[in-house]
Structures are given as structure tokens and as C-alpha cells.
Amino acid sequence: MSVIIKNVDTVSHTYNGQVIAASSQYTIQSQAEQMAFAASDILLAHISSGLAVINNGTADISGISTQISYLLGGSVGVTSLPEALPFAQPTYRTKRSAVASVSTCAINTSQAIDFQLTAERYVSGGKILVENAEFGDYVTASVYDLDSLIPSPYRAALCEAWPVVGEYIVKEFIDPLTQSVEVNTYPLNAKLTAGLYLRVTYFAINAGSTRNIAVNYYLTKKL
After folding, report:
1. Could you tell me if residue 63 is inside a domain?
2. Which of 4, 51, 147, 186 is buried most deeply by CB count within 10 Å?
3. Which CATH number covers residue 192?
4. Strand 138-144 relative to strand 13-15: parallel, antiparallel, unpaired?
5. Nearest alpha carbon to residue 197 among 80, 113, 84
């Protein structure tokens, strides 16, 4: 038995890091991959809206709930039950990362700092490090669709104000003593699709000298 995802839309979509071109299909190769696809909120939303269809290898499965149930519970070449999970086996793994290089922000200006997610990740915050910060400097942070990954018909439903998908810091002041600000959204982990950007924007007041800024991100992946 196999599971096939058919993209019946006229534009391509990305699920679990796999780009499925318009009017094409993708065959899931393993049960682990199947469960990874089943965790994709965008895929489930597209199934519900009729933009993606689950096929059992012979025919399209009818009914939204039946398709989702098949994707979540169907098997791909499984001939026996897997061994029970060992005690305390982790389901998530730390994948911390940072912006590629230090950015600069001149006085009385703002600077956007972008970090692209090359794979699906859960984000729980990060730490912004600054050199030459002045009292009154502040930052904002958001998930940003810089490359127009989200198709235009779905932007209103999926985004706060496209190209801003979601705003996580409306405004937070930099501590001039520690020259940093930590963003910790634990226990909330936001699951983000590959291709989206984490954007931090730094606002420098009209005082001092040019700021040097680096950003570390607290990322995890689901195993």
C-alpha cells in the first residue's frame, strides 16, 4: 500500500520540505515520512480546501475526514508492528542557529535582519546581541514571507498582515547594560514551514555610534 499526495492546484506547494509542482504528485516512501507529512498544518489545510488530494496508490480517497485519517493512520509497506519506543526517547532535537553575519545599524535608522528557514523548524525565541546599544533602542520580530511562499488566495487567512505571517515582538527595548535582549516563548514552540524568514528589525535612536547586531535563534526539529 502506498500514499500519494496529489497537488491539484495551479501553483506549487511545499510540504515537509518537499516541493510538489502544480498539477503533479508525490509518493511518500516510508511510514516515518508519512507521519512527517501528516504533521504539516498547511497540507491538512490544503486537503480541507480541496487543493491537495490523498491517493492510496489506486484511486483518490473521497471525503476530507477520510483523506486525513488515511494520511495519519495509513501504512506504507509496514509488515509488522514497530518495537515499542524506549523509555525517554526524545521526540525533538535542538537545532540552534544564527544569522550568517553581524549586521550594522546607523544611528537614527532601522535595520531588518532576516534568517531563512531551510527546513521546517519549531521556534521558541532567541537572543539579540548588540554592540554600542543606547537606552531607547528597541527591536521588533516577526515571521516574514519574503519570497512570497504563501499563495495570494490564502494570505488573508494564514497571515496577520502579509508579508508578515505572524508578529512575535511588537516592541521590546534593548538592555543597554547587558547589550542584549532575550526572547523566550517557552513553552510555546511555533512550527514554521521551510522557506519562511525570521525577521528582527533593530531601531537605533539618534545617539551614540553605529550598532553592531547579531541574532541567535532557539530552534528545534521533530524527529
Report:
1. yes
2. 51
3. 2.60.120
4. unpaired
5. 113
Whether the upstream peptide bond of residue 187 has omega within 30° of 0, thus cis, is: yes
Other beta carbons within 10 Å of 22: 11
Instruction: Round the CA-based radius of gyration of the chain to a whole number and report it.
Output: 21
**Sites in the chain below the pLDDT cut of 70:** 1, 73-89, 186-188
CB 214 within 8 A of CB 115: no
Assess whether 218 and 114 both reside in one domain.
yes
Q: Check if the beta carbon of residue 47 is closer than 8 Å to that of residue 29.
A: no
pLDDT of residue 89: 66
Within this chain, do residues 129 and 181 fall inside the same structural domain, yes or no? yes
Q: Report yes or no on 87 lying in a domain.
A: no
In 3D, which of 169, 101, 108 has the Cα closest to residue 137? 108
Omega of the bond leading into 90 within 30 degrees of 0 (cis): no
CA 146, CA 58: separation in Å to the nearest integer? 39
Same domain, 122 and 62: no
The 8-class DSSP code of residue 174 comes to -
- Residue 187 is predicted with a pLDDT of 61
pLDDT at 77: 40
Question: For residue 70, what pLDDT is reported?
Answer: 77
Number of domains in the chain: 2
| pTM recorded for the entire structure | 0.61
**Strand 211-222 to 164-173 pairing:** unpaired
Q: What is the pLDDT of residue 16?
A: 84
